Amino acid sequence: MDYQLTMLGISLPQLSGCFPNARYMVLYREDLLQQYLSWKCASHLWLWYMRRGKCYRQTPDQLPPLQISLSELTSFCQEHLHFYRNLQAWEKIGGRVIWCRYEDLVEDPQLVCNRLFEFLGFSAVHVSTQLIKMINRKPREMISNFEEVAPLISNETTKLKLDPTPLSAASASTRRRAPHNSQLLNGLQL
To answer: Which of 147, 160, 168, 172 could form an S-S bond across to 95 if both were Cys, CB 3.0 to 4.6 Å?
Structure first.
């Protein structure tokens, strides 16, 4: 994400300058509410600070419902919108980027990896994972003040709406997806 580059003091032009022939994959989550909830759960459980071989004391599904700040959720969505708009507007990486939805990766990892392999000019190979979905509850079950935040999330306002665009550097059968600015987070007060 943009904040990771910012934390390291690196801009997109600097990154591209260091790797002028690199190709990039933007893995994004269309459902920003689910991304926000995953982030909140990981923050509460300190998942980023776990050491190898350590067990989780709790899983995200065992957490009590979370109190969600409407302003924090709105800010989270705005930051992600800003990042994707900036990335889309930065033309220098043009045909060197492929957009992949997290939801597609979870649903069919082989299909997404096949697209990625083709984009990179590699032959497809079988992929497998032992990763499991950690959050299986619905937002209504995870958010203690759901009724308060429901207007924001009830009409698709926390979804990134994307338009498929053909890749210039790959075959016509491969597609990339890039954020469509007029549809991103429609309804948020930006």
So the answer is: 168
Tell me the angle at which helices 32-45 and 70-89 cross, rounded to the nearest 10 degrees.
Answer: 120
Nearest to 45 by CA among 30, 73, 64: 64
Q: What is the pTM of this model?
A: 0.69
Q: How far apart are CA 119 and CA 25, in angstroms?
A: 10
Position 10 pLDDT exceeds 70? yes
Sign of the dihedral defined by the CA atoms of residues 179, 85, 181, 73, in that order: positive
What tokens appear for 155 in the block?
Answer: 């009409």
Q: Which two tokens stand for residue 43?
A: 């923050």
Average model confidence (pLDDT) across the chain: 74
10 Å CB burial of residue 99 (0-12, 13-18, 19+) is buried
Question: What are the DSSP calls for 112-133, one per residue?
Answer: HHHHHHHHHT------------
Burial of 93 (0-12, 13-18, 19+ CB in 10 A): middle
CB 116 within 8 A of CB 25: yes
Residue whose C-alpha is closest to residue 34's, from 87, 127, 90, 101 = 101
